[in-house]
Amino acid sequence: MRGWLRVWRERDGQAYAELLHEDCVFDNPIAPIPRAELPRFVDSLLAVWPDHRIEATRWAVTDDGVLIEWVATGTLAGSPIELRGAARPGELVRSTSREPMRTSSIAV
Questions:
Q1: Residue 13 burial (CB < 10 Å; 0-12/13-18/19+)?
Q2: Rounded to 5 degrees, what are φ and ψ at 18?
Q3: 9 lies in some domain
Q4: Domains in the chain: how many in total?
């Protein structure tokens, strides 16, 4: 879990991809993202969300790794944003971020 938090704190998309299984597909609400494209995705996300902060709210060890619940906050397009989700670094098939989104003053 420390590695997962570190890659977001250091804004390192390549290191984030390296946490995931080579066949992982990041389950983004807009479109699935293959592991090889994650560094570019993370860079583009952080370019439009420069004050992005992420915190683990809960985590648990599972039989095949760790499940991390998280909250990401900051400002996007001039408005506050808060996203909540869950991740399973190292998971064989999918790492998921498809969770309900709560925003303030953002047209969805």
A1: buried
A2: -70, -20
A3: yes
A4: 1
How does strand 94-96 pair with strand 25-27? parallel
Q: Do the beta carbons of residue 19 and residue 90 sit within 8 Å?
A: yes
CB-CB neighbours of 103 under 10 Å: 13
Q: Could you read off the pLDDT of 14-54 as tens digits, one per residue?
A: 998 888 878 888 877 788 889 999 999 989 988 999 999 99
Instruction: Provide the token pair at 35.
Output: 């592991």
* Contact (Cβ atoms closer than 8 angstroms) between residue 96 and residue 86: yes
Asked if residue 77 belongs to a domain, the reply is yes
Is residue 89 within 8 A of residue 22, CB to CB? The reply is no
